[in-house]
Write a structure and sequence with these properties.
This protein has a domain of 104 residues: Winged helix-like DNA-binding domain superfamily/Winged helix DNA-binding domain (Arc Repressor Mutant, subunit A, Orthogonal Bundle). 60% of the residues lie in helices and 9% in strands. It contains eight helices and three strands. The chain starts with a helix and ends in a 6-residue tail after the last helix. The mean pLDDT is 92.
């Protein structure tokens, strides 16, 4: 094996993770101006999307939905609670379990966010069938990693 062949796996162009990382950053960048007007971060927006559907969820269930750990979610939820978007309450039977409930103010943001997906979607130059294949492929990729922890 030549020295160059030995290092093929380390070339940026051979990394599946790089285009996924770069695409994720670019998508978040597209959301930023719309969310900034509402004083939201992208991660807060994701939390709200889950809560718009479920109204109440435990922190661990929320973490599973968003692929985030409680160390990331706790400060995020504290900030959202301080802004009146959510309420956090401890479970009466098990104090280790924390429930997150969307407030009326958080629900009111749903209407203000209604057009955001279409605005961001218009920036993505994929045909509908290409977008569907990408969506399905990314979820297949995520489900293949679920539960894996290699830190």
């Amino acid at each position: 094996m030549t020295d160059e062949k030995k290092y093929e796996a380390l070339k940026l162009e051979n990394q599946l993770c790089f285009p996924m990382y770069a695409a994720a950053r670019q998508i978040v960048r597209q959301y930023t101006p719309y969310l900034k007007k509402l004083d939201l971060t992208y991660t807060q927006y994701l939390v709200l999307m889950v809560l718009w559907e479920k109204q109440t969820i435990t922190v661990s269930e929320l973490g599973a939905c968003l692929y985030l750990d409680s160390g990331t979610l706790t400060p995020l939820l504290k900030k959202m609670e301080a802004h009146g978007l959510v309420r956090r309450t401890r479970d009466q039977k098990d104090e280790r379990v924390v429930h997150v409930t969307i407030s009326q103010e958080g629900m009111n943001l749903r209407e203000k966010c209604l057009e955001i997906p279409a605005h961001v979607g218009s920036c993505v130059k994929l045909k509908k069938d290409q977008a569907k294949v990408l969506y399905e492929g990314l979820y297949a990729f995520l489900s293949g990693l679920k539960g894996e922890d290699h830190e």
